[in-house]
Amino acid sequence: MTEAPAETGQKPFEPRTYFAMALDPIHVGTGGYRLGRVDNTIAREPGTNVPKIPGSSISGVTRTYTAMAVQSSDPANEKKMKFQTIRENGVVDSCAGKGARDGEGHCGKAYCEVCVPFGFSKKNSSIQGLAQFFDARILFFPVYSMLGPVWITSPTVLASFGIECSVEPEKFSAVTSTTITALNFGWLMLEKGSATPLDPNILDQLKLEGQPGFNSIQPIIKDKIYILPDNLFSQVINDNLEVRTSVAIDPATGAAESGALFTYEAIPRATIMWFDVVYNDPKYFRVDSNEIKKNDKELADIDWLETNVKLGLKFMESLGVGGMNTRGMGRLKVFI
Ligand SMILES: [Zn+2]
């Protein structure tokens, strides 16, 4: 989590944190080569080996979904044809994605709900995206234990939120006081350490409590959050990723190709994640020499950027992020 600068006066940027829950297994791949037992591996944090969703993936799909949302909000308005416009001469314009025609298909207007937050680069004008997306990281990871499902986290993860806690090596510590003295993950048995449980209202400290969308799962996970040492946190996650096997189909025969069985891993359903978006104040930027406006009269501000980004984030719970989403994967519910 990034902190805003503390000085008084107008801030040139503002970080906002979003929480999200995987509704399906999520596979954001690394390009698909075989590493160990899995053919298609997912993106990971290099230092900890903990899986993540790269900020570029979140930004990319959100851009497309914002364009879809804006266009569908007012399909008759030519200014709102953000997702796709087909001109009379057959030329396609789109503010989604990388832009048709090598970026020239982005409209690049100073009032564009897509090009301003996500950026564009045309031959004669460009602007960096005023919304900067950071990686989505795992906050609480669901694991099956002999007690049923529990959600694990680690001191480093909680430290990102300014929450200090300790856990002894090879032991676990609980978020709320619990009578449970051992956690059995099948191959790994951990005993409870002597660290004092965190103040029970950790969800409050995380500002997660009361987040719309979190309320339905909160009672289920609230008393089942356990803190593992960082090294075991990574290990238990990597041993509990969803690994699926699929088979490639030969398009000519419609039958399975021989030797085409492949496996892919994914962040499992019910994982709770978080990510930051830093919004740069549009008043410090120009598109060509034009001020950035939300409409004919008003200058754009950080809230306008966030509103447009949220339109896209909202679609992620239906349309998903990452690959294999025709195989029932990828939906991420962002709590907004
Ligand atoms: Zn545009």
How would the blueprint of this fold be written?
Blueprint: E1 13-22, H1 55-73, E2 85-86, E3 92-93, H2 115-118, E4 119-121, E5 126-128, E6 131-133, E7 137-145, E8 148-153, H3 155-159, E9 171-174, E10 182-184, E11 189-192, H4 202-205, H5 218-221, E12 225-227, H6 230-239, E13 242-249, E14 256-266, E15 272-280, E16 286-287, E17 290-291, H7 302-319, E18 332-334
Parallel strand pairs: 8-12, 9-11
Antiparallel strand pairs: 1-15, 1-18, 2-3, 4-5, 6-15, 7-8, 7-15, 9-12, 10-11, 13-14, 16-17
Describe the protein's architecture and organization.
With 336 residues, the protein is an alpha+beta fold. It has two domains: 145 residues, no CATH class; 130 residues, no CATH class. The chain is 19% helix and 26% strand. It has seven helices and 18 strands. Strands 1, 6, 7, 8, 9, 10, 11, 12, 15 and 18 form a ten-stranded mixed sheet that branches. It has a two-stranded antiparallel ribbon with strand order 2-3. The protein has a two-stranded antiparallel sheet with strand order 4-5. The protein is globular and about 70 Å long. The site of zinc ion (ZN) has 8 residues, from loops.
